[in-house]
TrEMBL record:
PANTHER family: ABC TRANSPORTER ATP-BINDING PROTEIN, ABC-TYPE MULTIDRUG TRANSPORT SYSTEM, ATPASE COMPONENT. InterPro entries: AAA+_ATPase (IPR003593), ABC_transporter-like_ATP-bd (IPR003439), ABC_transporter-like_CS (IPR017871), ABC_transporter_ATP-binding (IPR050763), DrrA1/2-like_C (IPR025302), P-loop_NTPase (IPR027417). Pfam families: ABC_tran, DrrA1-3_C. Residues 5-235 form the ABC transporter domain. GO terms for molecular function: ATP binding; ATP hydrolysis activity. Keywords: ATP-binding, Nucleotide-binding, Transport. This is ABC-2 type transport system ATP-binding protein.
Length: 318
């Protein structure tokens, strides 16, 4: 599949700070791609390089095959950006802001007005079209920056923390709108601190830490690396249960507390049937079975913590 974003050995330093320290990444065209990382990992810097707000110190960055610096105009015209910080002309009616932006990207005036109405309807603030940005509520402001990103009908939509500080209802509405856009072919690059959001929406995520990519995988692949708890409730409290760990090296721990048995294993969904079979064969009656999967959040915390500990060890060793 062709790449919407191609990044090779991308570097950005601010004085002594290596905000991006040799990033390699391919974001496939049409994908819903998540960029996750703790505060200061380099996510915003990465996005700013793509949209031409920050000059890279080294490496290559292309959007649909256009170099983001040498072919700035071609690359930038394909991107819609909804930034984390609101950087909107506050004094003009929002519809006018959209029309002006479309004009700046070469859209003729009539079409610009049509598009402005269309995107305002799409994000649900058409009735506020004559209001200035300052007078919108926080949630409406979030909707507006999405509308502004959509005004040029971008092939790549970059969303930097699009749901920061919005209520549950709006978050779900925004998810729906973004998913529809992705279904109709728009490539999405999303950064978020709500890991659940990435787990739910993204085909693939890259985990960025200290300016480096630690991992690129689907949320499911990442979650498979963590352990799951298979929680079984038995009718009677047994004195012993089969030695699950001896026959399956995916099993990491077994804990029995009265009638409650917890088997901790990688790929819990695949191990559970065997646990049930063996309990049944040993004459135990099951009352309830529940599998609680590791969340992407746990895997994420584990990975970024390991990276931090690795760095601390290196610093001590130096
Ligand atoms: N203009 C700048 N001048 C100096 N240092 C900067 C500048 N912009 C970013 N940095 C530094 O670069 C590093 C990466 O910052 P960046 O904002 O890209 O991280 P982030 O992953 O987006 O963080 P957050 O999740 O907190 O938004 C940080 O150490 C930050 O302090």
């Amino acid at each position: 599949m062709a790449s919407a974003i191609t990044i090779r050995d991308l570097r950005k330093s601010y004085g002594d700070v290596q905000a991006l320290d040799g990033v390699d990444l391919d974001v496939p065209e049409g994908s819903f791609f998540g960029l996750l990382g703790p505060n200061g990992a380099g996510k915003t810097t990465f996005i700013n390089v793509l949209v031409g707000l920050v000059r890279k110190s080294g490496g290559r960055a292309e959007v649909f095959g256009h170099d983001v610096e040498d072919d700035y105009r071609e690359a930038r015209d394909r991107i819609g950006l909804a930034p984390q910080e609101f950087n909107v002309d506050r004094f003009f009616p929002i519809r006018e802001v959209l029309v002006t932006k479309a004009g700046y990207h070469g859209v003729p005036a009539d079409e610009a007005r049509e598009r402005a109405d269309e995107v305002l309807k799409r994000v649900g603030i058409y009735d506020k079209r004559d209001t200035r940005f300052d007078w919108l509520s926080g949630g409406m402001k979030r909707r507006f920056v999405l509308a502004r990103a959509l005004i040029t009908d971008p092939d790549l939509l970059i969303l930097d923390e699009p749901t920061a500080g919005v209520d549950v209802q709006l978050r779900h509405e925004l998810w729906e709108t973004i998913t529809e856009l992705n279904d109709s072919g728009t490539t999405i690059l999303l950064t978020t601190h709500y890991i659940e959001e990435a787990e739910r929406l993204c085909d693939e995520v890259a985990i960025l830490d200290s300016g480096r990519v630690l991992e690129v995988a689907s949320p499911d692949e990442l979650m498979d690396r963590g352990t799951d708890d298979i929680v079984v409730t038995l009718r009677d409290a047994p004195t012993a249960v089969p030695d699950f760990a001896a026959e399956d090296d995916r099993v990491e721990a077994v804990e029995l507390d009265g009638t409650r048995l917890v088997v901790t294993a990688r790929e819990g969904g695949l191990v559970a049937p065997d646990v049930v079979r063996r309990l049944d064969a040993a004459g135990h009656e099951l009352v309830d079975l529940e599998i609680s999967r590791t969340s992407l959040e746990e895997v994420f915390v584990e990975m970024t913590r390991a990276e931090e500990e690795g760095r601390a060890t290196m610093e001590v060793g130096q």
